[in-house]
Each structure stands twice: as C-alpha cells, then as structure tokens.
Design brief:
Low-confidence stretches: none
Radius of gyration: 16 Å
Order of helices and strands: HHHHH
Number of helices: 5
Distance between the termini: 7 Å
Number of strands: 0
Oligomer: single chain
Shape: elongated
Number of domains: 1
C-alpha cells in the first residue's frame, strides 16, 4: 500500500466512523443517553477530545483490523477484528465508569458495549471493502 493509498484509506475510514457515530449519537440514542445520564452530560461537546478519539480509534481500526484483513484477503476478518477492538475500546471506558463512578447505569454500559462492537466491526468491514474496491488494494 502506498502512502497516498494509506492516507486515503484513513480519511475514508474516519469519515465512515464519524458519520455512523453521529447518526447514533445525534438521532438514534440521543434520548437514551439523556434519560440515563442527564445531569452528568455536558451541555457542550468538547470537540478537541472527541476529535482525538475519532482520530485514534480510526488508526486503531486500520492497524488492528483493516490492514490484517487486507493482508489476508479476507474482508470478514476486518469485521471480526474491528468488532473485538470496538468491544475492548468501549469496555475500557464503560467498565471503568461502572467501577469508579457513583450511579453509572449498567444499562448504559451494556448498550455502549454492543454499540462499540457494532461500530468497530462495521467501520472496519466497510474500510476493507473501500480499500479493495476504491483503492484496489
């Protein structure tokens, strides 16, 4: 993979991740989080922290899921590896909150673990398909 292909793959994967997560956070689960975390939620998003998460999570999905799947020629491997990485990443956040924060809802942890698994798997799979189809990798 050339540097140009790698950068393009990163940008495509980042865009897919951001789009899917914004649909989830902005439309599908917005009421869920307000209902369960209401007073804990900040009235404003701290965009530098959010952007850093998206940049790092995208890099992790590419390194640990998409690239190995491309090397093996198996797009479904990207789905499985990305799903596992999503589970681990979201578990680090949610299980730490469950262990250390007063009144952190178990329901939020369960939903987030399912969401992280789905998000990591779907974005990695779509990234591997984009690499094979658009970038001919």
């Amino acid at each position: 993979m050339t540097l140009k292909q790698a950068v393009l793959l990163y940008m495509i994967t980042l865009a897919v991740l951001f789009l899917i997560d914004m649909v989830w956070l902005g439309a599908v689960a917005k009421g869920f989080y307000r209902r369960h975390l209401g007073p804990m939620l900040s009235p404003m998003i701290v965009w530098p922290a959010a952007i850093l998460f998206y940049l790092l999570f995208t890099a992790g999905l590419l390194v640990f899921a998409v690239r190995p799947a491309l090397a093996a020629g198996e797009p479904l491997r990207a789905l499985a590896l990305g799903a596992f990485l999503g589970l681990v990443a979201y578990a680090a956040y949610d299980l730490t909150n469950l262990a250390t924060l007063r009144d952190w809802p178990l329901t939020v942890t369960v939903v987030d673990l399912v969401w992280g698994t789905f998000l990591g798997g779907s974005v990695s799979w779509l990234g591997s398909l984009a690499a094979r189809g658009l970038l001919r990798i």
